[in-house]
Amino acid sequence: MIILFVVLIVLACVILGFIVLVQNPKGGGLSGSIAGFSNQFMGVKQTTDVLEKGTWIFAIIVALLCLFSAAFITKGTSASNLVNELDTKPKTTQGAPAQQQPAAPVTVPKK
């Protein structure tokens, strides 16, 4: 379930980043120059209002996904367990090579 939240959060962040980069606070960004339309984009007037609403909507979506994802983390789960859960490589069950015991020291009788 954590993987689903991570994918949704990354997707929402990418869309939010695109929306933020498209707009310009002075009105001269890409929103005003796409295909030569001055203030009309796909039949919608006031493109800056649409982009501002989109920014708020996706910012709220990212915040809510982050908060709700915390509910699915079980208690006692450490960061290493989360990394192991996100790791999709199959685990091998090969045992570690057996270590040999050191030989007992040999005592040489004194003459």
List segments where confidence is low: pLDDT < 50 over at least 5 consecutive residues. Answer: none
What count of helical segments does DSSP give? 3
Question: Helix and strand string, N-terminal first?
Answer: HEEHH
**Separation of termini?**
75 Å
- Kindly name the structural category: mainly alpha
What overall geometry do the principal axes of the alpha carbons give? rod-shaped
Biggest beta sheet summary: 2 strands, antiparallel
User: What amount of the residues lies in strands?
Assistant: under 5%
How many DSSP-defined strands? 2
Mean pLDDT: 74
Rg over C-alpha atoms, rounded to the nearest angstrom = 29 Å
Helical residue percent band: 40-55%
User: Which strands sit side by side, in order, in the main sheet?
Assistant: 1-2
Structural features, described:
The chain has 111 residues and is mainly α. The protein has a domain at 2-73. It is 49% helix and 4% strand. The chain contains 3 helices and 2 strands. The chain has a two-stranded antiparallel ribbon. α1 packs antiparallel against α2. The mean pLDDT is 74.
Topology record:
Elements: H1 2-22, E1 40-41, E2 44-45, H2 47-71, H3 79-86
Antiparallel strand pairs: 1-2
Helix pairs in contact: 1-2
